[in-house]
């Protein structure tokens, strides 16, 4: 895959079918979320409450995580700490092996994508089965998700039918592309997996320090099957997901579904605390993942990134995401949140083009249920890109020249004079239809206005002289 | 009132008519206008591109230039948002300079975007303008979100006599300019611009206006390239135009 956002976006832009799908899908979700958030008179207060709880949880993160560990252990669960992705993979593979199985079922989880768990399991001879419908589709197609919440948003049902026919054995034979038939096939296929698999791996939307309770919300019910049927349940969560009190859930269980899919409540809200004899899995493991999060926490401006509850609302309102598509972000975190979280997790050297993948229009900040100031963080990270030396040399040079020009009145006048002289070569009908690099991107689709003979300053001075 | 103008680098060099129009409106309303010559640029380009140390230099220059101003009026939504919204960030997190932070915070309440000055500071909705054209208004992202100008600019336009004001569909969506975004992500920016132009053309307007010449430079550059015949004009020029002295 190409290495920076602009080139990857160009692929997405040329895919007109995908652009149409995305525009339609995001537009529909936008309408729904706007409606159900507007109907709550205390929506703004809820957003503030969500932000305040996250802030509090992160201010005393060490304390709440230790409390969580204590309570999970007390309830019969086991807690594991993973400093990075490799450690988390190693823990999960080991636990799965100990259970003596060669396949696991998985509940939709971005964190397992983040640590690239599936390839690690496969390498260890363990087959992971995604059970969220869209994740299953993406997995069967050997692709990457293109949307946080609707990972297969870029696919149509004919493509899905063909995949099911190829990958589902008897359940896929002779399948039509009618949605009810597709879901029926998936259901039969997944039921079999639920019944025969001993180990399930899930993410977590929340974990409550006070009680040791872990929670997942979903809309299909497949997650609930994974949470209850297998003997061993392994949940992995980023350390930022901890909430201080059980009552805090009441805020997030309102914020998340309304912001995410425009539903008033998630159809399935599962909460579990440790293990209970004769009910559900008899073994429960919670893996707490850092993987760069404590570094984000140390940055007082970018820290808010960790408030994210992965509702994907910022993607659905983002004009850049809508056109470039999710794959342009080359990450399991796409859109505006992806543009800030991915470079912080992976480093600016590798993902330094992402903070620039935004026009800073502010639509994401306007709708985010926990009010993350994404544009501010984007600009902050751009500062780090430049400071850490990942910006182009030519650009740095041009910016330096411009800074000196603006720092000195005489130099500014001189450059305007030089510009007026230079543009004579390029001018046509009073505008400039072509400019040399790095400004050639502008004249790709836009004329540039010519410098007028008299600047405002000249006009003003003449007027004052009279 | 004594009004100090910050005309912005793009207006000064590329769109001097905007500044002239601002002067005409304010003087017509009886205000004393001044233009401190030491001003250059608010630093937005450097700031948004990540050249924060360079931007800090321009913050200091701005503060020195406008320290004693009674009211600072800026005919640009994005530059106003920069001064009011981003200067504190630069002072606090980049310069790490308490004194500078206090100075920019003390200045912020005296900084006004042009239409905001008219509607909110002066409480006006009719500035006596006459402009017999079909016009559509693009509310820039900064006007909508950073500055929360609400209906202010539209109220001013509605009170212009002779105007045929038509609503722009999908008005809340970004035009795709975004400073260096238009160059660094030229193709995505172009895709956004194409949709914006489609909406503008659907209104049948002769003129698209806004409170920011950078959006207009981008939109107008596209409209010109496509030979649409639709022009872009800054809001100040419409408000400066009168029956006796139409704005050329
Ligand atoms: S940044 Fe905000 S809007 Fe975007 S996914 Fe996270 S919580 Fe949702």
UniProtKB/TrEMBL annotation, chain A:
Recorded superkingdom: Bacteria
Domain 4Fe-4S ferredoxin-type stretches: 306-372
Domain Lactate utilization protein B C-terminal: 388-464
Taxonomic source organism: Niveispirillum cyanobacteriorum
Protein name: Iron-sulfur cluster-binding protein
Domain LUD: 67-274
One GO term (biological process): lactate metabolic process
Keywords: 4Fe-4S, Electron transport, Iron, Iron-sulfur, Metal-binding, Plasmid, Repeat, Transport
GO molecular function: 4 iron, 4 sulfur cluster binding; metal ion binding
InterPro entries xref list: 4Fe4S_Fe-S-bd, 4Fe4S_Fe_S_CS, FTHF_cligase-like_sf, Helical_ferredxn, LUD_dom, LutB/LldF, LutB_C, NagB/RpiA_transferase-like
TrEMBL record, chain B:
Organism: Niveispirillum cyanobacteriorum
GO molecular function: oxidoreductase activity
Name by which UniProt lists this protein: Fe-S oxidoreductase
Keyword Thylakoid: no
Pfam family, one: CCG
Highest taxon, organism lineage: Bacteria
Keyword Transit peptide: no
Protein keywords: Plasmid
GO cellular component annotations of the record: cytosol
């Amino acid at each position: 895959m190409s290495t920076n956002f602009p080139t990857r976006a160009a692929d997405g832009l040329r895919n007109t079918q995908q652009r149409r799908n995305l525009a339609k899908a995001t537009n529909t979700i936008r309408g729904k979320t706007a409606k159900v958030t507007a109907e709550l008179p205390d929506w703004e207060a809820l957003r503030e409450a969500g932000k305040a709880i996250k802030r509090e949880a992160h201010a005393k993160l060490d304390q709440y995580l230790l409390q969580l560990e204590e309570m999970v252990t007390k309830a019969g669960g086991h807690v594991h700490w993973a400093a990075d992705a490799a450690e988390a993979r190693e823990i999960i593979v080991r636990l799965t092996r100990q259970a003596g199985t060669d396949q696991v079922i998985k509940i939709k989880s971005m964190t397992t994508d983040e640590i690239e768990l599936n390839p690690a399991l496969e390498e260890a001879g363990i087959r992971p089965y995604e059970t969220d419908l869209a994740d299953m589709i993406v997995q069967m197609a050997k692709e990457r998700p293109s949307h946080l919440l609707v990972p297969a948003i870029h696919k149509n049902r004919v493509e899905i039918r063909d995949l099911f026919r190829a990958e589902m054995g008897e359940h896929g034979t002779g399948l039509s592309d009618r949605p009810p038939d597709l879901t029926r096939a998936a259901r039969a296929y997944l039921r079999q997996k639920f019944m025969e698999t001993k180990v399930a791996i899930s993410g977590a939307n929340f974990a409550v320090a006070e009680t040791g309770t872990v929670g997942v919300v979903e809309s299909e019910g497949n997650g609930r099957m994974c949470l209850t049927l297998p003997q061993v349940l392994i949940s992995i969560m980023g350390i930022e997901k901890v909430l201080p009190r059980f009552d805090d859930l009441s805020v997030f269980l309102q914020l998340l579904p309304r912001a995410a899919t425009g539903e008033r409540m998630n159809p399935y809200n599962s909460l579990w605390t440790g293990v209970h004899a004769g009910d559900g899995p008899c073994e429960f493991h919670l893996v707490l993942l850092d993987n760069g999060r404590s570094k984000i926490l140390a940055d007082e401006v970018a820290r808010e990134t960790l408030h994210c509850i992965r509702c994907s609302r910022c993607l659905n309102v983002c004009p850049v995401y809508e056109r470039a598509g999710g794959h342009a972000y080359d990450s399991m975190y796409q859109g505006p949140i992806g543009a800030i979280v991915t470079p912080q997790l992976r480093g600016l050297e590798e993902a330094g083009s992402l903070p620039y993948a935004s026009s800073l229009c502010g639509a994401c900040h306007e709708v985010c249920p926990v009010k993350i100031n994404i544009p501010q963080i984007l600009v902050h990270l751009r500062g780090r890109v430049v400071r850490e030396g990942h910006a182009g040399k030519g650009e740095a040079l041009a910016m330096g020249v411009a800074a000196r020009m603006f720092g000195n009145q005489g130099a500014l006048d001189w450059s305007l004079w030089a510009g007026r002289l230079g543009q004579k070569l390029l001018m046509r009908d009073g505008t400039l239809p072509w400019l040399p690099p790095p400004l050639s991107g502008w004249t790709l689709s836009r004329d540039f206005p010519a410098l007028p003979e008299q600047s405002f300053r000249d006009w003003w001075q003449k007027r004052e002289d009279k | 009132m004594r009004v100090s103008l910050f005309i912005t680098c793009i207006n000064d060099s590329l769109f001097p008519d905007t500044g002239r129009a601002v002067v005409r409106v304010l003087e017509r309303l009886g205000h004393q206008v001044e233009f401190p010559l030491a001003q250059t640029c608010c630093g937005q380009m450097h700031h948004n591109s990540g050249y924060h140390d360079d931007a800090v230099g321009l913050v200091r220059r701005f503060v020195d230039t406008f320290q004693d101003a009674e009211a600072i009026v800026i005919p640009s939504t994005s530059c106003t948002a920069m001064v009011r919204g981003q200067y504190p960030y630069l002072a606090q997190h980049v310069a790490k300079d308490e004194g500078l932070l206090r100075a920019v915070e003390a200045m912020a309440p005296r900084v006004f975007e042009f239409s905001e000055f008219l509607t909110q500071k002066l409480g006006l909705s009719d500035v006596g303008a006459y402009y017999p054209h079909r016009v559509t208004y693009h509310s820039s992202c900064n006007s909508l979100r950073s500055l929360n100008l609400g209906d202010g600019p539209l109220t001013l336009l509605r009170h212009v006599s002779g105007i045929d004001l038509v609503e722009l569909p999908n008005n809340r969506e970004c035009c795709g300019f975004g400073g260096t975004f238009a160059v660094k992500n030229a193709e995505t920016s172009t895709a956004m611009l194409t949709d914006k132009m489609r909406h503008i053309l659907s209104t049948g307007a002769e003129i698209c206006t806004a409170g920011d010449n950078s959006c207009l430079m981008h939109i107008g550059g596209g409209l010109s390239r496509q030979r649409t015949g639709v022009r872009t004009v800054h809001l100040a020029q419409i408000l400066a135009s009168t029956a006796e002295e139409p704005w050329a």
